[in-house]
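Customer escalation, tier 2.

The customer says the design service returned an amino acid string that "doesn't look like it belongs to this structure." They asked us to rerun it and document both sides in this ticket. The original structure tokens are below, unchanged.
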């Protein structure tokens, strides 16, 4: 019986810690909304930030501290400024000094660095002189400073630069692609795009494969096909660098659900993997499909269509990327984890896939749901 109680308690703790809450503003105060539409923490804070790893920064008497998903203070308000938790570590400022703390609020002793960087993907940068290296969340150096630049990690890989040449490393600091290219893309299924002098191509198994006529290639995202430009027009290439859809479009965005937004003249529609229009180009703008099979399209305002092109949510909303937290999500616009952040008559709320408003509530501001 005792073991069962302990097991249930652990499940409850895990459930609480895994909840997603959205920072919302109502009557000039900030609180937190749950995915079921209820207000989990009533609006009561003058200034607050979104949750990250089960903790949210809120301000009290001019100082910042952290609360949990129940609204209980976990780290007292004693900091002048704070950022977000990642891998159990947060960057905070106290007495004009930036330091790392853990989830208990204890200051972590980090290796020497000219700047304190946020953690991302299990690592953080350190800077010594003009060079950048990496530390892990245990404050151990895993890559001695050796690069001129390291970009943010995406899916465990980061672009690095030395002497104006770019390559790729993994989160262990190991060089996956030597810095030898003038530009380089993200790392997707052991493939990336790159530019060598004026030639664009793909790098596969350490070999640079030119893409015929390409003068720009965009990152691979969720499918084994990406868009590229040739002679001012946009088409699509596969992982081998072959043009699978000829460059005949004025603009394009990524494939998702086997459909991609493309622009002809000033109108947007969607093509399939054969390059055939599945949704005719009739819209002022269009975004990629979300996992739930809905995509934002714009007439005078934004609405949503399904994969057959049927309008399922009327075009009466504003949508936008989330400037503060877009770095933490795969997709900036449209439905994310079951809800879409939209604006209507200067109020913000969340749409459900059936077009109803989450909790039937609108707010002065609303940020994306975060754990």
């Amino acid at each position: 019986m005792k073991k069962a109680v302990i097991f249930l308690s652990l499940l409850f703790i895990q459930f609480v810690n895994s909840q997603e809450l959205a920072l919302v503003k109502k009557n000039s105060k900030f609180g937190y909304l749950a995915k079921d539409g209820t207000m989990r923490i009533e609006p009561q804070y003058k200034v607050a930030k979104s949750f990250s790893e089960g903790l949210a920064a809120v301000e009290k008497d001019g100082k910042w501290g952290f609360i949990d998903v129940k609204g209980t203070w976990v780290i007292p308000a004693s900091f002048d400024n704070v950022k977000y938790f990642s891998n159990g570590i947060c960057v905070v400022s106290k007495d004009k000094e930036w330091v790392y703390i853990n989830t208990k609020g204890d200051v972590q002793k980090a290796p020497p660095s000219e700047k304190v960087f946020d953690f991302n993907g299990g690592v953080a940068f350190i800077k010594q002189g003009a060079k950048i290296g990496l530390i892990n969340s245990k404050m151990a150096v895993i890559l001695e400073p050796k690069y001129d630049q390291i970009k943010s990690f995406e899916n465990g890989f980061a672009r690095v630069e030395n002497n104006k040449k770019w390559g790729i490393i993994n989160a262990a600091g190991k060089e996956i692609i030597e810095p030898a290219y003038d530009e380089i893309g993200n790392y997707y299924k052991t493939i990336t795009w790159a530019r060598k002098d004026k030639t664009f191509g793909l790098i596969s198994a350490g070999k640079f494969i030119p893409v015929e006529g390409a003068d720009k290639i965009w990152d691979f995202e969720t499918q084994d096909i990406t868009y590229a430009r040739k002679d001012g027009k946009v088409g699509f290439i596969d992982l081998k660098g072959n043009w699978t859809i000829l460059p005949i479009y004025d603009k394009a965005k990524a494939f998702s659900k086997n459909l991609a937004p493309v622009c002809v003249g000033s109108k947007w529609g969607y093509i399939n993997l054969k390059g055939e229009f599945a949704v005719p180009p009739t819209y002022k703008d269009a975004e990629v499909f979300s996992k739930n099979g809905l995509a934002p399209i714009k007439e005078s305002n934004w609405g949503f269509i399904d994969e057959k092109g049927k309008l399922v949510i009327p075009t009466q909303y504003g949508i936008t990327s989330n400037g503060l937290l877009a770095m933490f999500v795969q997709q900036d616009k449209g439905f994310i984890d079951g809800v879409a952040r939209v604006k209507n008559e200067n109020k913000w709320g969340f749409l459900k896939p059936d077009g109803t408003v989450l909790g039937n509530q609108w707010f002065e501001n609303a940020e994306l749901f975060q754990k």
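Tier 2 assessment: The sequence is consistent with the input. Confidence is low (pLDDT under 50) at residues 1-17, 322-331. The first helix runs from residue 2 to 18. Sent an explanation to the customer and offered a walkthrough call.
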